[in-house]
Structure formats: C-alpha cells, structure tokens
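thoughts on both lines:
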Amino acid sequence: MDAQTLVDTRGDLWLALAPLWLEREPRETDYTRMIEEIERHGLSERELEWVFRLELAPVLTRQQMSVAGEWREFDDYRLMKRLVAHNLRLTGWRRRTWALFSGLTTMMARHRFNELMERLMIARGRDVPS
C-alpha cells in the first residue's frame, strides 16, 4: 500500500483516535468523533484493538513521552507523516515485534481505550461486561 492510500483509508480514523494519547482526558466530542469514525470504517472490536496496538501506539506513545510542547502545537500533518511512515514499514518482523511489545506501548492510554470500547459497545446496542 502506498502513502496516499494509507492516508485515504486510515487517516481520518487515526486522527480521531489520537486524543487517546493526549495529556488531558478526551472530551465527549472526542469520543463521539471516535465512534463515528470507527462505525464509518466498519471495524470490529478486534480490528480496532489491532489498529490501536500496531498502527497507532508505537508512534503516539513516542509523541506522548516526548517534550510536552509537541502536543500543545498539535500538527495533523506532522502526525500523519509519522503514522504513514510507521505503517509503511509495518511488515514482517516489525509487525511481530510491535505485537509483542504492544502491552508496553498501550499501557498509558489503555484506560481511555477501554472507555472507548465500552462506549462503542453501548452505541452498538451490546451489553458491557462488568
């Protein structure tokens, strides 16, 4: 897949899910936008988990751990460049390595992702496990 195809197919979803890594809690409008994009892409919970773990977490965790000023000057274009570059390289051993370490890269945003999953299940009319 080339860079433009990645941006066309995943770009809106990636940008919608990026607030999971912000230093503040996502707003209601953030969660609403996330759910709308997930539904628009027709992702299952399992597919969404892998987007979170493999496509987003390796890039956004580095951004989250870097200087705080980067998030204050949130730049969609710069973030998209990083995400596309990461995902173009995400084949073979790199995919397996990120899958192996994804527990570490998702740790700081996992509670927010779990909140998103609960909201998604409610939006889909499914029971939320206790």
